[in-house]
Design brief:
Elements: H1 5-36, H2 42-55, H3 63-70, H4 80-99, H5 106-122, H6 129-160, H7 166-206, H8 218-234, H9 237-246, H10 252-272, H11 278-293, H12 300-331
Helix pairs in contact: 1-2, 1-4, 1-7, 1-8, 1-9, 2-7, 2-8, 3-7, 4-5, 4-12, 5-12, 6-10, 6-11, 7-8, 7-10, 10-11
Length: 332
Amino acid sequence: MSIGLEVVIGLVLLALVFDFLNGFHDAANSIATVVSTGVLKPQHAVAFAAFFNFVAIGVFHLKVAATVGKGIVDPAFVDHYVIFGALMGAIAWNLITWFYGIPSSSSHALIGGIVGATMAHAGTGPLIGSGIGRTVLFIVVSPMLGMLLGSLIMLITAWLLRRQAPMRVDRWFRRLQLVSAGLYSLGHGGNDAQKTVGIIWLLLISAGITAKGEPVPDWVVISCYVAIALGTLFGGWRIVKTMGQGITKLKPVGGFCAETGGAITLFIASGLGIPVSTTHTITGAIVGVGSAHRVSSVRWGLAGSIVWAWVFTIPASALIAAIAFYVGKHVL
């Protein structure tokens, strides 16, 4: 397949725009709890999170990138129209949910975009069931694991500190929350930046610039981590309030437990090469912390509306991507 260099460059830039928007859209996941508990001011929190987003480049192997690049659809059936459709579907859904302040998943928007554009191009044949199945499974697993870990860490912490004065506990966890927020931002960068690495890798393979068995070029990895860090630096302020205080009221100890539970979940998923939603993960962890304190402290109605956004993300972004694929056939 012959793809013009100018088209490849344009699509790489479009992928980096998605990566930037991913950081912008999901910045709330990294900073919502640390801002809502008053540990850091918003402008300090985004710089803190952006730094750890980028530092993740030296921590995680490119297993998630391999899944997105070669484990969702067969690269042999991917062309520049499919890449264009996938990116436009993901970007459009991110912008829609950002505008309405809905903490949806950038990750699953991209997966839905890849699936929708590929199906518009070649039907269901190129889809890789195992890769898609694991990703869909973790739509349920990642928030449930985050919820379980968040509630367990909260219960254990509460038991260990049951004889300590509340003011003293608050002072300790204002410091410890910096550690947990850093770990969560590290996991966020490590999992999310690799999704854009994967789709650029898929583009380079389809264009014949990189062979299927070759490693992803270093410039792709570095540019993707820079883009997501910059996106986080500019922040997604519409979603911070929902994530930080809309689901349940958090104190520093609760923020620490939620971020730690979420970080552990992201580290596990990245180690397994599974692209998960950082939004799903931290939401589950926050719900777990809130329910450990008191079930009624969780605003289940709001949590339920967020779940509906998760359910619609893949089909909605897939539909937009399919439409964008046909548009791309006429403009590229």
